[in-house]
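Batch job 17 of 40 flagged for manual review because the log was empty.
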Amino acid sequence: MRLNKFLAQYTNLSRRSADTAVSDGRVEINNTLAKLGDMVIDSDVVTLDNSVITPSGNILTLIMNKPIGYVCSREGQGSKTVYELLPGRFSHLNCVGRLDKDSSGLLMFTNDGELANQLTHPRYQKQKKYIVNLNNALEPIHQQMISDHGINLIDGNSKLMLTKIDSDAKIWEVTMTEGRNRQIRRTFSALGYRVTSLHRTDFGPYNLDSLKLGDYKHI
């Protein structure tokens, strides 16, 4: 198998990013610095940034309905991690489209680097949908500001598509194609609102359907 394909299949790198990693000297095959175009066989030991890459044998992707209170990392540093909700045989999968500890909903795990790249790279503009509860009713002028012009945050403008779900204007469906850290929470906070719950229902072509909180499924 060509090296860049191997890296894309068993890490969260795309093939292009894999080639860059090789060019930057981050990849070794059998303790020898790898070169662009190298081939990999089953007996080879491949490392990326000095970490051994263990092939899983098959491309595997899971969807989880993440509960609140879990962090999206392998090392929780005192917090529960989403990997505790999966059998140990899935510990090699990379978490894609992270949610913060206080958020719930659709989370993906995969060893398919190409899929991970397509879901997360800004140029692909993958749509994500969330159900957001606010502490107070959203004023019409603030809805218009968020939807039409966006809110200026420290890391750039944040423009969200909003659809009202309840008559009290506290529950909204938020649609976005970006994915900056805590972007939805920061957008509402900039206008004086607090997000009391945030639940992702859709990520690109994938959705939770009837998946129960804390459960996962293969796709």
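Reviewer: the log was empty due to a logging misconfiguration, but the result itself is present. The chain has five helices and 17 strands. Unflagging and moving on to job 18.
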